[in-house]
Amino acid sequence: MTRRALVIGSTGHIGQAITRELLARGYAVSATTRARSPRGLADLDVELLRGDADSPGQLAAWTAGHDVVIDAAAPYPVNMFLPSGPAGRTHVARAKRRAVDLVEATEASGSTLGYVSSFTTLERPDPPGSLAAIEASMRRQVHPYFAVKDAMEEVVLAGARRGVPAAIVNPATCMGPWDRRAKDAFVPQLLSGVVPATVTRPVNVIDVRDVATALCTAIEAEHFGEPIPLCGHNIAVDDLAARVCSLGGVPAPVFRTSARLAAATTLWAEAAWAITGRPAPIPALWTLLILEGYEMSPSRAQRELGLVPRPLDETIRDSIAWYRATGAC
Fold it and tell me: Which of the following CATH numbers is that of domain 4-324: 3.40.190.10, 3.40.50.2300, 1.10.10.10, 3.40.50.720?
């Protein structure tokens, strides 16, 4: 019998890759969406399930009858200072409640859960008491993104400890096709010439298609209950920018600055915009995540899954082709 899979967040960057990977593996895929006619799914043989994951009972209704449930739409706050939602609920409380509902719905339906987390929840390689460790601690106190990611992953791990079959992947910085957030995306901004300077900071970049492959492989191999770090290629941000521009046939930004200075500048700018009650054009989160980055090596779990990242130039070329095809640059 054909296995049925539900993808929550199927129109997102990673969700699109996961949806395509599942279809390639022969799954019958149900794709959740708020849109009446989601463009990203128009060419795919999926069943559309419309609704809002935050509506009471919606996750339970969606998960029923599916063998696999994949959450590729875990919420996270982008802005630090704007209101956190209805009735003053905090970002962390809302995200934790959603994660609890997801795990309980998956458990009730007897499904296997696939959860896309973040590399920021992994143990960092910084020596205790070092400047890098102190900075990481400060970032977690400044921006709610980190607490939200930690809280949601812990709920999934708690479910796994009581027997819910849950595969968890923690990818590094993702690139690749199917990203529809062109306004904030690194590649189209570079190709459009709106990036005045880049930073000198190592990051790790992985293709969203490799993330999808790893998660589906982990589910089928029943690699449950343990976060799986996923890494691709180590590269400095300024070198990555230069490579994108070279393959895109445009001049690369000339100026370089430190990631710390860029983060401090965007933090102050976001605070200033918050006074007006509006979100900052460039959220500080993106520079904070660059600061959060570090060079990574394939984990034992990644090696066991047999995931060998595709060449970085392939990821960059396919990203450029996607953004240009969609008119983002």
Answer: 3.40.50.720
